[in-house]
Amino acid sequence: MTTIENQAHTHPWTEAVIADCFGPLYRTIGIKQQGQLLGFAIVQQIIDEATLLDICVAPAYQGQGLGLLLIRHLLSEAKQAQAVVMMLEVRESNTSAKGLYEKVGFSESGRRKNYYQTSNGNEDAILMDKPL
Questions:
Q1: pTM here?
Q2: Domains by residue range for the chain, with CATH
Q3: Is 89 a known active-site residue?
Q4: Where do the N-acetyltransferase domain residues begin and end (predicted)?
Q5: According to the annotation, is 120 in a ligand binding site?
């Protein structure tokens, strides 16, 4: 997972952070082909609120609909687990991720101004949610 995370994200999670996401409050799913992990996603659910914490597809497999498969599966699982909403945050500059989220029905619900540090200063975190 860490290898894909480092390849696909400009600000990847550390191995320790990813390891902390294996427990009773988290769901981690992956897509494999011939035993090779191509992508994964991590959701935390507390009572009836699910939060998409990370979704990642290896760069060589991006643009093939794997992210869409992952997120649709997560939405279905969250609904089965009686979540009423899925939430997430995304960097304002991550237009491909925002497009994916909007495609499955997420909409902007707020912003955290200057939340992320960048090499050029700061950028907003866009908060998005989707009722289930």
A1: 0.89
A2: 2-131 (3.40.630.30)
A3: yes
A4: 1-132
A5: no
